[in-house]
Amino acid sequence: MLGRTARFRHNKKISLARKGQSGVELAYVEQFISRVDSYFCLLGQVELEREEEQRPEEEQQKRVDYCTLHCDLIDAEAALEQEKAIRLSYRGIESTDQFNAEGGTYCFLLAEPSSQSGQELEGQGVVLCGLGEEPGENSRRTGTIVRYESQRPAVWVKLPQRRECTLDALPKEGTLFSRPNIGYAIQKSAFQTLAEDKAVNRSILDILLEGRYAPMGPVEQVARKGNPAQKRAVDLAVATKDFLLVQGPPGTGKTTIIIEMVRLFVDRGMRVLISSKNNLAVDNVLEKLVEKQVDCVRLTTDEEKIQVPVVREVWTNRKLLTMQRNVLLNSGRQRARLEEELTELAPQISALQDCAQSAGRYQELLEERRRLMGQRLWMKLLALFRSKRTKEWEQELEHTEERLAFARELLARYCVEHGMGSRDVDVGQLATDILRELADLQAKERTWRARLQLLSQWERELQNRCEELEDALFAQVKVIGATCISSETDRNFKKLEYDVAIVDESGQITLHDVIVPMAKARKVILIGDHLQLPPVSDSDLIRRMEEDERFQQEEGLDRYYSVSLFEELFERAPEANKVMLDTQFRMHSSIARYISDQFYHGTYQTGCLDEYRVLPLRGGEAPIRFLDTIGLPDKEETMAEGGEGVYNDCEARILVDETVKILKQLPYVVKDFDGSREFDVELNYRSVGIITPYKKQIGRIRKFLLPALARELCEGDKLHAQEILDRIDIATVDSFQGRDKEIIFYCFVRSSPQHGIGFESEVRRLNVTMTRARRLLVMVGDSETLTQTRAKKPPFQGSRYPREYFSALLDYCRQNGVYQRLEVSHGKEE
Description:
Elements lengths: L1 H17 L4 H31 L3 H27 L3 E14 L2 E8 L7 H4 L3 E6 L11 E8 L4 E7 L13 E5 L4 H13 L8 H7 L17 H12 L3 E5 L6 H14 L4 E5 L2 H13 L4 E3 L17 H59 L2 H10 L3 H29 L8 H36 L4 H10 L2 E5 L7 H4 L3 E6 L7 H8 L2 E8 L10 H9 L11 H4 L2 H6 L7 E3 L2 E2 L4 H11 L5 E2 L17 E5 L9 E2 L6 E2 L1 H15 L4 E6 L4 E6 L4 E5 L2 H18 L5 H10 L1 E4 H4 L4 E7 L16 H7 L2 E9 L1 H6 L13 H15 L1 E4 L9
Parallel strand pairs: 7-12, 7-13, 8-10, 8-11, 9-10, 11-12, 14-15, 16-24, 16-25, 21-22, 21-23, 23-24
Antiparallel strand pairs: 1-2, 1-6, 2-5, 3-4, 3-6, 4-5, 17-18, 19-20
Helix pairs in contact: 1-2, 3-5, 5-16, 7-8, 10-12, 10-13, 21-22, 22-23
């Protein structure tokens, strides 16, 4: 309390001190202010720690109760999932024609129909087990159910490209089990760590329960790139001590600021965790880090989950293999060098041994030579010629001269190597030096042979053991990417602590998931947008919780599953701990302006020039178009058999016609600008995306689009048409968040006399849909259903009835784009 009171008085004095100062005086005052601010931040932190020590027992019990509640909720969720677990016996396998580089789809003929619907089965992960096997025994045989037919009965399972997942390798009879979910145990462990006050970030519960954040440190201007809002986000990320929330609407450069934050954190020697709910969000960030040559690691138990090819190069296992290869390569080089040195040592040792033997003899030879010369050798030779021993003396003299020449050669070599003249040599010292050098070389030989033997042994062990390399890798790398749950699945990662955890797409992540990375880092930065897609909630789970006696006294339990922690915190966080990125660089302003007015109260600005977002094609003159089916007799939706999904053939056909009109004009080159230079962009089939709210509608669109492509673009060649179709991204709204296309086509699907719109009442899906388009957005829908629906307000602050958003959209298209009421012949524009 003392620090807060003193800071208030200090701030009043500072405001007075700033008035009427000259430039030099003001600079001095600012410097003084910075020092005082640092003092008060430290004082505030000390007070915070003192308050923690003196925390009342009832407050501590409140924290424990909170964590216990969430552990119980997680247990209940796990129990419900176990009840819904898949266990499908199959009696045969059929191949299909659905194969690509990533894997293939097989049809499993079931022994009996499933008690679960296709809607419940599709998208579920399964483990394939032969007769008598349990799921844990063959974790490599895993796949995803993509289709179910109750009549046959059969399920179609997409399997990865693995040796264990070929038709020959798969057991012909067996059982499909649900993949074991280890996430619940990891979530509980995070809450237990918080309850025991052992989390790396001990202020998490202060924030969640009390809304109490650590005082913000001095905010310095450290960001080098970006617009003002982006720079402020980066500056705050560096300055904050415990928690920062960054709202990033579509196209505002969330990845850009993450890269800049990581750069600054790594420069300061900090370890950074990049996390998110889904793999693609993690991969998108790591892809940019790899391009910037930032050393990073991607953690996942399954390489197939990595959705960006370049990120596979930094997958943990690949990094370890690369590290292992480099170590073995270096050790191989060391081995070769040691063997080469030993090879070179052998003649040197042999020569020195000869030198050692000859060194003593050299002195005797010199003395003998002097004696012979001193006795007037020429006179004695006359006598020796007459002697019987003349021949022997000649032979001895010749042998002596040869040894003397060899000794001179060794002496000359020694003198050259040691940089001295032959006259400087002390022969006695020479023998001593030679013997010492010989001993040194022999010792070196023994040492190198021992090293060579140790290196060979280590290489053999390294082939089979990677634990030491993992320790070395994680000690070396400062940036690690993992989904919220997988950040705790690896042996090494469980013991790692982080200086910073950056969690992207936080607007889609519930408390139970995001708590895992949050508990492992001293500083947490949540980046997301609660005005885009919310978390996907399970209505069965929420109903089960409401009926559970343990939770009868708890209010608002559904919010733990339907509302992200980011959204819960953003509206009530202090201004110092949150920031919004307010400028988008993705789309034409005609698309962005509606989004700004309807979702961001006019604060969502456009930073790119419209001249670089135009589409000079027939049908692309206006960036935003709405094609209204209100006058068509066959406009209504169809409920799929068994109530499993909705589709609308009328809208699908219209959308296909409009798509083909654009595709016939591709490829086409347009201009773009990145802030510093203009460049060309080729629009091709991959530049087009088709979005729909319902999976069933995807199938109908594909069904109509393939023959249309064959007829209009491929002269009847269906194989060529299929190649084109494979390049066009057709997906649901929920799977498209985080991506964009130059051209987007969208159909609303819902059309009925009851005006029901299903989960399209969550209008934040409209925000996501519209902001996927960069140059052209074409929408197909029934204005009557959309504007007369009685759907409730979506559960976010400031929301309105869905019909108000749709009415505003139609008015906007009339005024700023194209609104076209279709007749049987597709009519003409109003």
